[in-house]
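Reopening this one. Same input as before:
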Amino acid sequence: MSKSLPQEVYWALRDASHNIRKRLHNKLADYGVTWPQYHALYHIQDEGIPANELAKELNCNASNLTGLIDRLMENNWVYREHSREDRRVWLIKLTEEGKNLRERLIPQYRRNIEDEMSVLSEQEMRQLLELLKKLM
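Same output, byte for byte:
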């Protein structure tokens, strides 16, 4: 059975997104970092972030966040600290090693995205962006 044009477009979008994401995640692995770890490091600023806010940013529940934070702590990239304003709140903060990693990773990840998109001209990217916005 052949696919309709809408189905072909859907599968092409899905496959392109999956393949780009997979290549980007593989490049993170070169640094020994998973996508969830990168995403967490991205959202943790120098002043730290309350654990519940980080969970919202990462769209995950408390138990998933606990495991993720534990792994980040095992790598010496973050630590937990009670909030001075509310001792019930845990702040997640970057260690020096975590700050250094974050400073290297974020610009590299952005370059990796630009590399992935470099197969398209600027005009093609603008056209694609407008078309994708219609689907959102």
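So the earlier flakiness isn't reproducible anymore. For the record, The chain has a mean pLDDT of 94.
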